[in-house]
Amino acid sequence: MAISLTQSAAERVKTFLAARGHGIGLRLGVRRTGCSGFAYVVNYADEVHAGDVVFEDRGVKVCVDPDSLSLVDGTTVDFVKQGLNEAFRFRNPNVKGECGCGESFSV
Q1: Alpha-carbon distance 32 to 53, whole Å?
Q2: What is the pLDDT of residues 19-77, one digit of tens each?
Q3: Which residues pair with 25 in a beta bridge?
Q4: Is the model's pLDDT at 100 over the cut of 70?
Q5: What is the DSSP string of 5-62?
Q6: What is the fold of 4-95?
Q7: CA dihedral in degrees (53, 54, 55, 57; nearest 10)?
Q8: Above 80 in pLDDT, residue 98?
Q9: Residues 6 or more apart from 71 whose CB is under 8 A from it?
């Protein structure tokens, strides 16, 4: 099992954590929603919760709750800038389909 980060994503997380002045890494999870079933939930992690699985890539810890792990296992997290927009993007090998708006996915 693994979660990986691109260099761009790792730099973004490190920059934000430094600006916040606290935090240990990134928290990645999923929730049921949208037209395809699931959506990613991304936050900055301030601590490791009981049951979390913790990965480390490029000097950044990624905390994943056990309920989300099977849905995001193997995912690469990227950070992209397109014009004025910037966002985390996910390359998840478990995804079978995505909604047209790109907000949700199915497995």
Answers
A1: 20
A2: 999 999 999 999 988 666 888 999 999 999 999 999 999 999 999 999 999 999 999 99
A3: 45, 61
A4: no
A5: E-HHHHHHHHHHHHHHT---EEEEEEEEETTTEEEEEEEEESSPPTT-EEEEETTEEE
A6: Hypothetical Protein Aq_1857; Chain: A; (2.60.300)
A7: 160
A8: no
A9: 30, 38, 92, 94, 107
